[in-house]
Amino acid sequence: MSTADHQAVFLSYASQDAEAVERIANALRAAGVEVWFDRAELVGGDAWDQRIRGQIARCALFVPVISANTNARGEGYFRLEWKLAVDRSHLMAHDQPFLLPVVIDDTTDAAARVPPEFRAVQWTRLPGGETPEKFCARVKTLFGGSAAAAVAAGPASAASAERSSRRRISPALGIGVLVATIALVATIAVKGSRSKTTDLAATRSASTEKSAPLTEAQQLVAKARKILDEGDEVNRETYVLAEDLLKKAETLDVTEASAWALHVRLSTYLHIMGLDRSPARMESLQSQADRAVKLAPDSPDSQIAAAQAQMVIRQDLEGAERSLQALAERIPREARVWRELALRMAHKK
After folding, report:
1. Cα separation of 295 and 278, whole Å?
2. pTM of the complete model
3. What is the pLDDT of residues 142-164, one digit of tens each?
4. Three-class SS of residue 27?
């Protein structure tokens, strides 16, 4: 197998999805990734079939593109491609990255008509084929094999392979956000205040934790927080899992402010990543922030949640900035405050 083969991605899709898949192909190619995408390269006949089989046998990563169109078709050449890829995966070590399913619409994991082997690995959602730089970076990482075990284990482990360089900001905000973030992180470093990003509720003193064990609702919030911290932010399933836990926590204890505050964070990320910008989500976001503040008005978590909601809904942005600046002076070691300030600065540009 040639060096190029070791760096090639095979995109498998239903013909109705060609335009969306071409966006994925173009993004990967722009990132320097070799892509096998047959729309403009192949013609019909035996030679076409043989070439497809040969590429699947040699490619480094196989990307099945899942959609309503693949679900609607009980037969199709892409289904043979999927079978060939699955058969090849059976010859590979369990931690060898090869299958990388992508969903381009609202098709749910449960409803998708896919081989069982696809469900054993991490899925990524690229609505309409819009492909963020992070996905391209992950593909290049997988070529090196350093994330093999992470992909086999699932979303949480895969995300840990990238956590050192991850930033939870919208790709659409562009260079301005990155510049602002770098400037703020530099300020923190100069002050000797650099710290790991966590929710403030998770940084309680050991003595407090020993004297006050977490309630069942708080345990659910902690699990949801872990999923958000370690999960893949471009994968809708990350948010589905975390939100399910938060809803259970809110049902168990409607007065648990940390649940409502973390729910604001989740809703904010859904909006920033373009996964859910519906009116219903915006209404929920506002309600979640209001509850967090009403239940624990002096809690930094609640105050950060209120500022996040204000910036997403674009209400009293100056007030949100003042609140975050006050928090930064009060708790300079909390990186989440600086990140939200960075996002606010980017919106002002």
Report:
1. 26
2. 0.45
3. 876 533 333 333 333 333 333 33
4. helix
